[in-house]
Specification:
It is built from 18 helices and 21 strands. By secondary structure, it is α/β, with parallel strands linked by helices. Helix 18 links the parallel strand 20 and strand 21.
């Protein structure tokens, strides 16, 4: 008689799976809570201690780590020496291993104490999955309840699973244990205060197979890491076609900017740079400012707001083509208006806690890891004779919140709680400034605006430009060996300048 060892934390579908196996002539071996669940359903599984000849000990820490289990899984069944050894020790083969692991991820997610988290590190489960996967030529390994139906179907059709299926299931199991161990590794390193472990493991779960990548000839997939707020991986899509690679990149950049603000804010992004950002007393005012900031570039853009979308804003949004709108919620009438557009994507997202996760960037043959840029400035120091007014200072800080998310070299102009010019990704700072200033001037908003720069001014040329366009105040990190040249130029033209002591390059 064939045997199946079933021991699962997630018991969804396991009773029906076990019943099907019993009907197909399998003897069921089980442990602890799984055995009780199967018995409650009228099945009579064999207890694991009947296989090992040894009771579960150490509060269940040791129950499957035994030669009668791993010998049954690892024996090569067409190897005469293995077959002889198995017979000598009265080991009976195990043909199916159905295991999912202790809920370590869920335990740390709810903030459990360290001791409880350690107890939820599974040892026997990964060992059985790895043994069965290594010997997939003879053993079927199951770690995902979504595979139950296919396994039953193949056994009914062929008397066993196919080798191709067993190989795929083995690969899945190795990926599963690797991801599980990566999460444990991360947690233990954090608890031990190890910031740069000698070996670094990553664990992510498949979220979506994308139609293509950045361009149609590139393949791409979307994987989710740990759950956090302001995350596309854990947002809820309410309407519209599936997200594309570029949608995800752009939306992530939009949410990164949005999390800078506590007051009502609307962010419009294109190609991972903001084209319009507005803040106000309510979403209506914030939307009007974000739209007015650049009513041309917003076409085909990504919108994120930290306010519930209402009818007024939805009607305004519906008049232009937008790829995606992300918000904490939508009023019913607002959703109805926007959902009338077939292709627009509507998503809700948790926006409570700023994520502190690391940032990853791939390079050829490697990966760069850094802390998320969650700070804004070290200290605000006015270095000029002229001090900014209260309104100018408010706009300067707003501009600095935005410019830190613009591709470097970056310049952002702000006036009255809205961006009026954005210069992104230029090879020199004055070039970025000129782009932002020309756009602002074309809309009659350059004069009287303030300027934010992501990094220091290496020369006074940006101040000279600012004077030409009527800019009244500047905020920048400071730190150039020629800072005094820029300070002198500001004093010459009556422009106030604030140093922040903190640079925000974004490459």
């Amino acid at each position: 008689m064939k045997r199946a060892l079933i021991s699962v934390s997630n018991k969804t579908g396991v009773v029906d799976f076990a019943k099907e196996l019993v009907n197909l002539g399998y003897e069921i071996i089980s442990t602890g809570g799984t055995r009780k669940a199967l018995e409650a359903a009228g099945l009579k599984p064999m207890d694991i201690s009947d296989v090992t000849g040894f009771p579960e000990i150490l509060d269940g820490r040791v129950k499957t780590l035994h030669p009668n289990v791993h010998g049954a899984l690892l024996a090569i069944r067409d190897n005469e020496k293995h077959v002889k050894t198995v017979k000598e020790h009265n080991i009976e083969y195990i043909d199916i291993v159905c295991v999912n692991l202790y809920p370590f991820k869920e335990t740390i997610a709810r903030g459990a104490e360290f001791a409880e988290c350690v107890e939820n590190i599974d040892i026997g489960g990964p060992s059985m999955l790895r043994s069965a996967s290594k010997n997939h030529k003879f053993v079927t390994v199951v770690c995902d309840n979504e595979d139950y139906a296919q396994i039953i179907e193949e056994i009914k059709a062929n008397g066993d699973t196919t080798y191709e299926t067993r190989l795929k299931l083995a690969a899945k199991a190795f990926s599963h244990t690797a991801c599980y161990d990566a999460l444990i590794s991360k947690y233990m390193n954090e608890k031990a205060g190890i910031k740069t472990p000698k070996e670094f493991a990553m664990g992510f779960n498949l979220k979506q197979e994308l139609r293509y990548g950045e361009n149609p000839h590139q393949t791409a997939t979307f994987y989710a890491g740990e759950k956090c707020d302001y995350s596309l991986a854990y947002a809820n899509q309410l309407h519209g076609k599936e997200l594309s690679y570029n949608n995800i990149q752009d939306a992530n950049a939009t949410l990164d900017i949005l999390r800078e603000f506590d007051e009502p804010a609307v962010i419009a992004c294109k190609h991972m740079n903001p084209c319009g950002v507005g803040i106000g007393a309510n979403i209506n005012e914030a939307w009007d400012k974000a739209y007015a900031a650049d009513d041309k570039s917003i076409f085909g853009g990504i919108i994120a707001t930290n306010q519930k979308v209402n009818k007024y804003v939805a009607e305004k949004m519906s008049q232009i083509f937008l790829e995606l709108v992300i918000a904490p919620a939508f009023d019913d009438d607002a959703f109805e208006i926007l959902a009338a557009k077939k292709n627009i994507r509507l998503m809700t997202c948790e926006m409570n806690t700023i994520p502190t996760a690391k940032k990853f960037v791939s390079v050829n043959g490697g990966i760069l890891i850094q802390d998320a840029d969650n700070e804004l400035y070290a200290d605000l120091q006015c270095v000029t004779e002229k001090k900014p007014t209260d309104e100018e200072l408010k706009d300067l800080i707003f501009g600095y919140q935005v410019v830190k998310h613009v591709k470097s070299n970056a310049i952002v102009l702000v006036k009255g709680g809205m961006t009026v010019g954005v210069g992104a990704g230029q090879m020199n700072r004055s070039g970025a400034a000129e782009i932002a200033m020309k756009w602002a001037k074309s809309n009659g908003r350059a004069a009287g605006s303030v300027l934010a720069s992501d990094a220091f001014f290496p020369f006074a040329d940006t101040v000279e430009l600012a004077h030409e366009y009527g800019i009244t105040a500047i905020i920048q990190p400071g730190g150039s060996i020629k800072d005094q040249d820029s300070i002198d130029a500001c004093n010459k033209y009556g422009i106030s300048m604030i140093f922040t002591g903190m640079r925000h390059f974004k490459h």
